[in-house]
């Protein structure tokens, strides 16, 4: 890439003066601009996939000061002066799947997560689609690990006791011209080994999904697309890792990494300072910040926020399958870095709409606005005109960890000898995790062996995790026996989702020790129904307090300090 020509082109298009220099790994940008979207667009102009160099975008947003990251309120010495073989930073799907793979070896592994539970970031705020990879045109790590990971899902979810449905997906064509363009998907599927993809006609798609009958001329059928609960899978990975010897430390934030320009010598956290022979960076939207702490920042993360809408499963006019509109030349040109969202049927029976995609400067900006709700609903309403706005029962935002190259970074550091990066894991990161976690574990073993360490297999490794009881899914005879053995399973606390007191107690006493309102919600769905916890939350709150033998005022919604109750009414 000719940097001078690109700098001049930036000034011609945007009127922004940019300084660009490069080293053996990166193009580093500096300057100032008064618009964040423009800063991101400029960063993309310096991507050169032929050179393989990453973009480090240090262009400042005029008048803007980045908010400090959320940090846990707890501060103690529980990890101080401990020694580890491997430390995994980040409790999302990347960190938890990697930790579980590492538990196959006789290693002392620590997983640190700054929030009160795993799956707090993008891993807990996405649609749970297990992608086939049909949208990826060119060979890249996303495609390699996405297709490989998709094929592993049945076995992984069976082992971990997590619900998984390979119900397929339909990309609907709204005109003959778009249908003609859509034939390129068939050759792409064959090239990338995506199985059984085929074109179906108007009659067939309208029989499968009657909600599209007014406009559909045909569809692309993608049978290998699946659905999983992203937070339940992440939790299951973490629990199985812990079951096999991994230590999981929640409410633990990495504050700095001490290093000597060759290796990380110690990890500084709010729970103390410790050492590790290997550090794995799975920090999501903060992955470049962790790299910077280690003296190895050669890529940038630019946060990309997406909003999803949750529909009442009992509402009218909902589709029964995962469907989306085939992109047109116009929509592709408008936003090349998102699949455009769709209508997703979750494993729990809900319908999700979205997400959209907007570049934001804040890494933890999970706010939602009515403009997001309108944008997502109006777009998906074109795909399914029978959708009703009144059936929206909740909406939420997640922030993707995007690199300017729009691909995963999964590699050993070239500069810091005991550091591995697992960064830029945006969609299809959930799909790809079972595959790339295997490679990262192998990288880790190779790294340790190169440092003279002996690494043995864990003879006691058990891939199986016992799935929590879901009472409403049991046969009548099984449920009767369960209630006879434990009457708590016959006491319904969450009416919307039919969740019993027994299931809530089971969730409170989970292996990771998470006992918050949101922790229970993620594990058994108490509070995820139409009333969004309006009926059941007081009982969940009381049950947590009773099980932990603490004052009800000390129970948190999520992270430390997020109290629900503040005192007795008469006191207030």
Report on the architecture of this protein.
30% of the residues lie in helices and 22% in strands. It contains 16 helices and 25 strands. Strands 4, 5, 12, 13, 14, 15, 22 and 23 form an eight-stranded mixed sheet that branches. It starts with a helix and ends in a 24-residue tail after the last helix. The model has no long low-confidence stretch (mean pLDDT 95).
Please identify the structural class as seen in this structure. Answer: alpha+beta
Helix content: 25-40%
Beta-strand share of residues: 15-25%
The oligomeric state of the chains shown is: single chain
Tell me the number of strands: 25
Counting DSSP H or I runs of 4 or more residues, the number of helices is: 16
N-C termini distance: 66 Å
**Tell me about the biggest sheet?**
8 strands, mixed
Q: Mean pLDDT across all residues, rounded?
A: 95
**Taking Cα atoms only, what radius of gyration do you get, to the nearest Å?**
24 Å
pLDDT < 50 stretches: none
**Overall body shape:** globular
Output the keywords.
alpha+beta, about 575 residues, globular
Fold topology:
Blueprint: H1 3-14, E1 18-22, E2 26-33, H2 36-45, E3 54-61, E4 83-89, H3 93-102, E5 109-112, E6 129-130, H4 141-160, E7 164-165, E8 169-173, H5 176-181, H6 184-191, E9 198-201, H7 202-208, E10 218-222, E11 226-228, H8 230-243, E12 247-249, E13 254-259, E14 264-269, E15 272-281, H9 287-293, E16 301-311, E17 323-325, H10 329-334, E18 342-345, E19 351-354, E20 358-359, H11 370-383, E21 392-403, E22 409-412, E23 419-423, H12 429-450, H13 476-485, E24 492-494, E25 499-500, H14 501-508, H15 517-524, H16 537-548
Parallel strand pairs: 2-3, 4-5, 4-15, 5-12, 8-17, 15-23
Antiparallel strand pairs: 1-2, 6-11, 7-11, 8-10, 9-10, 13-14, 14-15, 16-19, 16-20, 16-21, 18-19, 22-23, 24-25
